[in-house]
User: Which sequence fits this backbone?
């Protein structure tokens, strides 16, 4: 059997120490570091010269910062990029800015800085680098269109939307929420594989981008129509009870599922077990098989199930595993998912 071709990485950081630590970690995990760069300008040049499979990118650097470098690289030589982000509010904001420019995912630096403590997380970092390296970047410039609302479209009572995503997911989730009209009366639960301290900023970003009131989940929180909840980092979000169109949510410290906490499966399974009204389950881009069992559970109770297609997924592993269960009703490009959701909860659609 031929050996798998090693991943070729470019490590970008203005600190020589950080470049050395990250390079050593990746090399120990059989990821070939082809070169390093001290700033964004060098990164742009070396991406053009070396065509690496993946770039790890710092944010704050002299001459050209990480966000500007991401923008240039994604326009000139599209390459999967993993941001190394500070564990701060400012770091979270710049991280989402980088994702908006085309970065695939991010890794929070322990304690706000990469140090020797990062060696305790080397397997996790290497796994994320491999996941990002597998991302498709050539299809990421799809124009998103908001569905045109039909004048006389009406919706079922008390619909609930459940969405799960991982690598490449934040921008897709934001597009979907911003494309759904508030008069749908949806209750929306979102699991995005994302560490603590970033999910609260993600919830605020979504809140400012859509018609729904979006918050980070809290234990015992109750939500009704027009409200959305993002699972907090490092806690599972599950539906505890349901009555008269209102959900009561619970946070769980149960072990990770498919190496993730929060995970999609517990959220979807609990919804299938608890909610008696209309359900729509959506699996978006991401690495791994989280969400496949949740989609099966939803389908067993008559939910409409949707998966993002391969052509628009940064990483198609999660939707592919869901599709392989045979329980997915629709496989759609990301720009078509909002309209598919609206059709699923519509009682009429007359212009």
Assistant:
């Amino acid at each position: 059997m031929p050996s798998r071709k090693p991943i070729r990485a470019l490590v970008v950081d203005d600190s020589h120490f950080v470049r050395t630590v990250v390079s050593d970690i990746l090399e120990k995990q059989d990821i070939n570091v082809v070169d390093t760069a001290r700033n964004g300008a060098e990164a742009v040049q070396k991406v053009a010269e070396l065509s690496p499979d993946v770039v790890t990118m710092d944010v704050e650097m002299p001459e050209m910062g990480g966000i500007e470098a991401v923008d240039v690289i994604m326009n000139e030589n599209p390459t999967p990029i993993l941001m190394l982000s500070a564990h701060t509010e400012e770091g979270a904001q710049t991280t989402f800015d980088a994702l908006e420019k085309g970065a695939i995912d991010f890794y929070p630096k322990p304690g706000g800085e990469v140090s020797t403590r990062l060696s305790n997380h080397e397997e996790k970092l290497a796994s994320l680098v491999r996941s990002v390296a597998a991302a498709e970047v050539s299809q990421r410039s799809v124009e998103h269109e908001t569905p045109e609302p039909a004048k006389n479209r009406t919706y079922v009572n008390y619909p609930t939307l459940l969405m799960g995503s991982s690598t490449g997911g934040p921008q897709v989730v934001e597009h979907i929420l911003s494309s759904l009209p508030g008069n749908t009366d949806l209750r929306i639960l979102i699991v995005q594989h994302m560490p603590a301290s970033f999910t609260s900023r993600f919830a605020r970003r979504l809140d400012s981008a859509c018609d729904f009131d979006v918050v980070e989940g809290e234990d015992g929180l109750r939500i009704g129509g027009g409200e959305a909840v993002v699972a907090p980092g490092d806690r599972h979000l599950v539906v505890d009870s349901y009555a008269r169109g209102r959900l009561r949510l619970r946070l769980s410290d149960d072990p990770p599922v498919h190496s993730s906490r929060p995970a999609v499966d517990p959220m979807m399974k609990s919804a299938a077990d608890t909610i008696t009204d209309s359900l729509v389950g959506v699996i978006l881009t991401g690495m791994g098989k989280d969400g496949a069992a949740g989609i099966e559970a939803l389908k067993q109770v008559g939910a409409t199930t949707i998966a993002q297609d391969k052509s628009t997924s940064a990483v198609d592993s999660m939707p592919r595993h869901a599709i392989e269960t045979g329980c997915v009703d629709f496989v759609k490009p990301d720009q078509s998912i909002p309209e598919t959701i609206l059709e699923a909860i519509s009682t009429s659609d007359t212009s």
